[in-house]
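Researcher: Next entry in the queue.
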Amino acid sequence: MRRLDAIVVGAGVTGSATARALGERGAETVLFEQYVVGHRRGSSHGATRMFRLAYPEPDHVRLARRALESWRGLESAAGEELLVTTGGLYTGGWAEVCGAALATCGVSREWLPAAEAEERFPGVALDGLERVLFQADGGVCLADRAVAAQVRLARAAGVEVREAAEVTRFAIDDRGIAVTSGEETVHAPVAVIAAGPWAGDLLFELGIDLALRPAFAQVTYFDPRAPGTPMPPCLVEAELGPGVAAGGYWVPGVAGARLKAGLGTPGRAVHPSLAPFDVDPEREALDAAWIARRLPAFEPAPVESETCVYTMTPDEDFVLERVGPVVVASACSGHGFSFGPLLGEILAALAAGDDPAIPAERFSTRRPALAASRRPAR
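Model: Structure for this entry, 378 residues:
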């Protein structure tokens, strides 16, 4: 059996970032991906994702500031632009809490009267709103390019990337963990499980029973009415409470991508192995109606829609913890991608036994929100 320093399962944004960070630490690492890098069955595919510093909790604001530095480091290493700054607009009761969290962390922000925001950002309609929060560091992650760059950098750092390599067996012993894929079995002191919506099933096989729920998600793409129409900043319109959205979100089209919009709330529970899923016409119609109201400079008729899978925790927070020889890496609930490069650094630190400088209790597998069993007791 071949001995390694570390194993990573899953080559989405989190797994590829972790593999890169481990490789750059000098750790002999194998990265297993059951499909191919960039596949469309999980949570990391697509042209763009939103990046923001605006979060309701100061912990996440601080983490997002670190993530911004990590994105710039990834761009420098990759030699290409991967995070395009557009600024971000945030509305509703949720934005009020975000503004307070930004203030607590000393992050610059502006409260704009709705009329002033409409004048500053032509084509955006903010009827029914008194004011909106603007934060200048918001922007767009070039998602597919970022994952590809991280895998390329991981390979350059010596990581072996196994595509079409489904993990079929784990075995834990007093020296670490053995992982089997096909006819290959490798052993290491630690394995990072960064398998997105498949993580719950894999972790359960390892005796780690967490309340992770894969859920249907969908986004819809729109074109401007006229050539040369300026792209708006990112926007999130939401009220307070987990899973509550008054409107939705949009990500402006940059670097050749179209503007995309979504509800921001997960749909029905799904199993990721059945993906990609058929488009839900009701969700598409809701996206179109919202864009017709808030972005009159854009055609309200959708160009296309695509689906993905959100992996939800009951408190919509991450799970980042080492449990014996297993590092649990669930950067989930719809906002994990924008932290991707930083999460790779954090998870590599956990794998190496170093302090990752995170609020450990918040992201623990043992927190009360995850106590409910995923499955009936055997």
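Model: Helices lie at 13-24, 58-78, 93-104, 114-120, 143-156, 199-205, 281-294, 340-352.
Researcher: Noted, moving on.
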